[in-house]
Amino acid sequence: MAVALLVLKLCLVVESSLSPNDKIAWLPGQPLVGFQQFSGYVSVDDKKQKSLFYYFVEAEIDPASKPLVLWLNGGPGCSSLGVGAFSENGPFRPNGQVLVRNEYSWNREANMLYLETPVGVGFSYSTDTSSYVAVNDQVTARDNLVFLQRWLLKFPQYKHRDLFITGESYAGHYIPQLAKLMIEFSRKERLFNLKGVALGNPVLEFATDFNSRAEYFWSHGLISDSTYNLFTSACNYSRYVSEYYRSSVSPICSKVMSLVGRETSRFVDKYDVTLDVCIPSVLSQSKVISPQQLGERIDVCVEDETVNYLNRLDVQKAFHARLVGVRRWDVCSDVLDYDMLDVETPMISLVGSLIKSGIRVLVYSGDQDSVIPLTGSRTVVQRLANELGLNATVPYRVWFGGQQVGGWTQVYGDILSFATIRGASHEAPFSQPERSLVLFKSFLKGSPLPEVF
Asked: What pLDDT score does 269 carry?
């Protein structure tokens, strides 16, 4: 008994001493704020020295009463720090040499935890470079689970706090698999109080999600009738992607994709078909799951303030970050060898199992995204609701953000929701921050989206 008490006391000493070491005193160029920030590393494999980098921002007001939200970007292999935190829903955005406040930061409603995962992404690293080879969904989910377990040792005040997981794109794979492991772990030890997951423009069902692209292109005038017919019969997009990642693109798929590429034009941002500006590389997470069309070179902005900011030595020092095995911080990893065939594994049945476990699920779509279009996501959610026998508790209707229509929504059984964000891109909080914050706030509360303005 005495030994057990001694061990407990030692653990408490470790817990209380770690998080202050990760506290960010001041980020270069940041405005004055009243909330605390932390960042640093959590080892997820001591033998291979695999360490995941995180950035944690406490809620602006009364963080002790607010939930904990884990945000994951996709790729696979793209940074939740550079994309999620610094271009989408974090408290700051780089502007030249300084940071400016994001008026619609999600830490207005929650304590936000951004994780660069898997190892090899951003500042996350392993001293054993074999850790970057043959990385897959299973390895990523396991490492993410260990991260959360050990992160809660640093921040014990967040144990048992209401916990939500949110993210976008390939996080449609990351999040359900992590949530499944968390539920399994909780049967042995009560640590996580997982309440819900929100998936933005997610990859959930490979064929449905990817093949909805053809209709989206055609309905928005990006391709001709004849090319649409070829794109839906001779070679659909899921077939092309499967062939691409097996290095065996057939002549017919090569022909079809050349036509699609020529008609859609490389001067249109596929992740926001209404955007008429250059494509920032901070939005490049989706380009990993969307291979370059044959003969097409992805254009990015020369000036990328997030990349410039995170590669400053004073910024890295403030973040307690270091570069290991790479020369610079990048939005998406070029050292990570991810098993891209995992994209073909459907996640929607796993989402169904989360719902059966009582976990609320929101699938939302920026409606200007042609990479993972809303039509595919809506179809997948409707099919899942039917399979689970969930009736519509909120019929398909508009919702409001401010004094304008924010999008459309439908809720099934008060546990499964679908929503669109009007005018939003693949990275919805980047392009429609105010509407995205309204959606996030409703999601946390478990309440329907506003019917009136």
From this structure: 80
